[in-house]
Amino acid sequence: MTDRIEALLDEGVRDKVYPGAVWAVGDSAGVRATGATGVLDPDEPDVRMRPDTVFDAASLTKILAVWASIGALWEDNVLDLDAPLGTFWDEVTGHPLSAVTARQLLTHTAGLPLRAQLKNLYGTGPDGIRRGVLHEALNRPPGEAVEYTDRAALILGYLAEHLSGQPLDQLSETRTWHPLGMNTTHFGPLPAHLAARCAPTELAQDTGTHLKGTAHDFSARLLGGVCGIAGTFTVLDDLAVFLRYMLDHTTAPAGAGFGAEWSAHSLTAQTGGLQPERGLFWHPAPGTTEEQDVWVHYGFTGTGMWISPTQDWWAVLLTNKLYYTRDRQPLTDVRNAFRELAFD
After folding, report:
1. CA-based Rg of the chain, rounded to a whole angstrom?
2. Strands, DSSP E only, in the chain?
3. Which tens digits make up the pLDDT trace of 173-196?
4. Which pLDDT belongs to residue 205?
5. Which end of the chain is more exposed for a tag (fewer CB within 10 A), N or C?
6. 278/148 Cα distance (integer angstroms)
7. What is the DSSP secondary structure assignment for residue 207, as one 8-state letter?
């Protein structure tokens, strides 16, 4: 398996799908195979991609920060997933969002607006953006369709802050990252010593340099680096710890806020007859069967992680494909081939 994965990912470097990649597969007992290929930055061809390279996690933030924090609040019995938000959250009472539930947000069935457009709609002030997002009209009635939107994680991040009384970065640190020993997972912008280890992403038009240690996602940058949509940076080892804990919560140095019950509940189809099928923020990996039980979440920068409770197996692939292109298809092909090899 290792040789075939390395050959696949080497080909992706040659084809300029991404400058470099790091990967690992394993089970609840630990890492079973890992590797790195390519370079950190094509402008510095002598600097190899390394297993400890820091990556802009992009939408993996939705799992590492929001999903984990919401799970902690659910396991604390602070949050009822099926209670309309307006019944316990004064900020949304009397507004369209009041009829939506946390479960609908987690399954992308809340009927929210599909495009971010935060600056265009609500300006650049964090308070104005929060108020605008929590008070805006829905795109369609809740529960009608599965439509992936960043709004769901943004709103759930705000909800987690409301229920915990902590900013999302502090909540994630205290309830998830610190207990699990995920010592290199942080919201950005990163301090200089970590930014130096970071895989660069897209070229920033205003500076003429590639983003490195600052979130690629515009909404995250607009909100100061911390929001439910994106903004976290992480490393391969931290994601391995996180996924191992999801498979067996006794593997961590200390218990995180969420546990086995939240993981099991989330990696189960929650969308009834609606398609595409969704769990809670996780979704079945493309090209897999129900029996294989493989769930995935991706990040726009070129990140992805897969998990299968039935197989007691997980996989991580981290790339900085945005260095070259926003075109999704080349990396989609690599991801699907990687998943096939990883779960063969």
Report:
1. 19
2. 20-27, 30-38, 55-56, 186-187, 203-204, 209-210, 232-234, 283-284, 295-299, 303-308, 313-319
3. 999 999 999 999 999 999 999 999
4. 83
5. C
6. 10
7. T
